[in-house]
Design goal:
Elements (H helix, E strand, L loop, with lengths): L3 H15 L15 H25 L10 H13 L2 H33 L1 H15 L7 H8 L3 H25 L3 H9 L4 H12 L1 H22 L8 H10 L3 H29 L1 H10 L1
Length: about 290
């Protein structure tokens, strides 16, 4: 009886080979060192920086078009030394943070209401979809009439821009929640708020984080537009002053800061994904 199993296996293998089938080979996943991943991620920005420096050194890129990296570094030191950079960063981050807080919270609440209740969807969704198609830049003149040239107009503009991505993601994520699980929780006596807190929001967490990523990115884009509304402080004000004096080095500094703000926002969401959904990282690592 001990030799029957190997003989049977040999016969099945021979039949499979005669039929043109091959024995599957399992691919062993080798963990990639984190240092290698960091190096690969920095290759792109380093290549751009090297091309920029080379173009400036060869004269293909003149100072009146764009300052060289060394001149931009000098401008950073100048702005940091006189305190303008830190003050502008504080003002801009406060604007973007407040607008994101109001906008993302509003989008989340409306998304849960329209996604979880039929009455909320029938009453609110069509109106929100109409407003969502209006470019937020078109609201700048209207907000200036309503709020004047104040911080309220800037924060409100960022809030409007960041609310719709969160709304769409939250509404879609809530609708995709397993209805059988919701009904099971109702049969156990859970109220509507308890179901939303313990079942709906955890189930919609991937969609919510995707919406947060889009909202944080849009908060930086809306910040650029908001700071064009006659700002007297902030990164946008530095850009306006640099434009008046043709300081391409300071213009480059402000553009790089906006880019770094967007990159930081994306990194924050990635960290939240690792903390709130550790199983997702394990699945992605096994798929690579």
């Amino acid at each position: 009886m001990t030799t029957a199993a190997p003989e049977r296996t040999t016969d099945e293998t021979r039949l499979a080979l005669d039929a043109g089938l091959v024995t599957p080979h399992t691919r062993r996943q080798r963990p990639r060192p984190r240092a290698l991943a960091v190096i690969l991620r920095t290759l792109g920005p380093l290549a751009l920086l090297g091309g920029w420096a080379l173009a400036s050194a060869t004269g293909a890129l003149t100072q009146d078009v764009l300052a060289s990296p060394s001149q931009v570094a000098g401008a950073v030191g100048e702005l940091w030394g006189n305190g303008q950079l830190t003050d502008a960063l504080g003002v801009s981050l406060t604007r973007a943070g407040l607008g994101l807080l109001f906008g993302a919270t509003t989008g989340l609440v409306l998304g849960v209401v329209t996604g979880f209740t039929r009455l909320g969807e029938e009453l609110l969704d069509s109106a929100i979809q109409v407003l969502r198609t209006v470019p937020f830049l078109a609201l700048v003149p209207l907000f200036m009439v309503w709020f004047g040239i104040t911080e309220t107009a800037k924060v409100a503009l960022i809030g409007v821009a960041t609310s719709f991505p969160m709304y769409v993601s939250a509404s879609g994520g809530v609708r995709n929640t397993d209805r059988k699980l919701v009904e099971a929780m109702r049969s156990f006596g859970l109220g509507r708020w308890a179901i939303v807190r313990t079942v709906v929001l955890p189930g919609a967490l991937p969609a919510l984080l995707s919406g947060l990523r889009l909202s944080m990115t849009l908060s930086v884009i809306a910040l650029i537009a908001a700071e064009e509304i006659n700002s007297t402080e902030g990164i946008g004000y530095l850009m306006a002053q640099a434009q008046n004096y043709s300081r391409t080095d300071i213009l480059a500094v402000c553009i790089l800061i906006y880019g770094l703000l967007g990159l930081t926002a994306d990194a924050v969401v990635r960290v939240l994904e690792r903390l709130l959904m550790p199983w997702r990282q394990a699945v992605q690592g096994a798929a690579r």
